[in-house]
Description:
alpha/beta
Amino acid sequence: xxxxxxxxxxxxxxxxxxxxxxxxxxxxxxxxxxxxxxxxxxxxxxxxxxxxxxxxxxxxxxxxxxxxxxxxxxxxxxxxxxxxxxxxxxxxxxxxxxxxxxxxxxxxxxxxxxxxxxxxxxxxxxxxxxxxxxxxxxxxxxxxxxxxxxxxxxxxxxxxxxxxxxxxxxxxxxxxxxxxxxxxxxxxxxxxxxxxxxxxxxxxxxxxxxxxxxxxxxxxxxxxxxxxxxxxxxxxxxxxxxxxxxxxxxxxxxxxxxxxxxxxxxxxxxxxxxxxxxxxxxxxxxxxxxxxxxxxxxxxxxxxxxxxxxxxxxxxxxxxxxxxxxxxxxxxxxxxxxxxxxxxxxxxxxxxxxxxxxxxxxxxxxxxxxxxxxxxxxxxxxxxxxxxxxxxxxxxxxxxxxxxxxxxxxxxxxxxxxxxxxxxxxxxxxxxxxxxxxxxxxxxxxxxxxxxxxxxxxxxxxxxxxxxxxxxxxxxxxx
Length: 479
Ligand code: NDP
């Protein structure tokens, strides 16, 4: 692991940073998680700033809501062009703040590309009034009206892409949106909005950086009509409580602890790469990553060996160095969670196949890619969400038992089944309690396909036409 690269931002990245940051001493210090170097200073919004932003949003929204879908989509497409025009500066800033490598697979350049692609896809979905009844009794038509002002609260793992998942459908449906990014990654989201605001009407998209207190103020603000939130289950519950007083609409995309079940007929070599990236995408810091893998006795050693082989070949290091495909954990708290869970796995008799031995003298929150075998299903590394690069591989002898284990937690975001027989895999998928069950892949998302959790992974859908409807209120005109 090479963590030595320290270099000044490119001029394009520095210009973006300067456009959004405040002077030293005037805001929160943001450090590069790979090097510990200071990246910049994020403004800190007060509740008075929030009041003013909500007022601006309300005024902008009235006019925006009058526009047709075609007009709003045209503006969104231009916002996507603006993102593309600044793509490399945005990707560099994202990498420096979040830690993920710039190039190589689903990393920073991919995330920025996904932002423009998602915006265009969201602009293109057809959403027409739905004729529910049209007969002798009369006519009833369902329309989708704007909610008003949406408050979006987001996490630090995919800060730009998750913000776009909130921003694009909210704007498409005639709302204004005020975003509170994670205090760990505010500059990325401020920069993304800065770029989009080159073309968006003033006041429609605003970003207020601040801490959890500001998030709480969003939740209880009477000028905000809906909260869309991605983050932890605990914060999701706090938001739901805070939103109760004025019955705000909610979309809650919360954490998961996704299971993958390998069936006996799977080909270990053929599935190894999909399993690896399902688990280790973004260094494991992904809500719908594969977080516990169930493998039958017959394939156990082969799957473990194939994964160890791949893990050993994946360079981890500073994101600006081209060869790296994995980066650091984004922050100390998450690093500590991963380290604690791997220790708990060792204490519980787990066999560390690779990794598990971080170099504490290196700068940055690098935790090596770690695979742990021979764990009991109730070990904390299996039962708790690690949200980092440490995958437990659990042996099973009976498929019914594996399905019971997969369903045994209170969360249900994603899951996957791995098999050479898609029909059989689909039958198993039907028995798994999760918002999405992938076959022979894990975590693959598509702007057209609705995404959301069951159980304590939240509710409400994102993406596709269903996602648009969740950024609107249904309104029936009958007669
Ligand atoms: P949190 O849920 O604590 O934070 C997510 C966002 O909510 C942040 O913007 C945070 O602000 C804000 N927030 C915090 N408290 C409140 C509140 N009471 N009311 C409103 N908003 C609030 O997640 P963390 O970033 O702390 O990560 C902790 C765990 O969450 C991880 O270990 C992981 O398990 C899970 N997680 C899941 C993600 C997902 O994609 N589903 C993404 C990230 C984390 P601030 O950052 O300023 O405190």
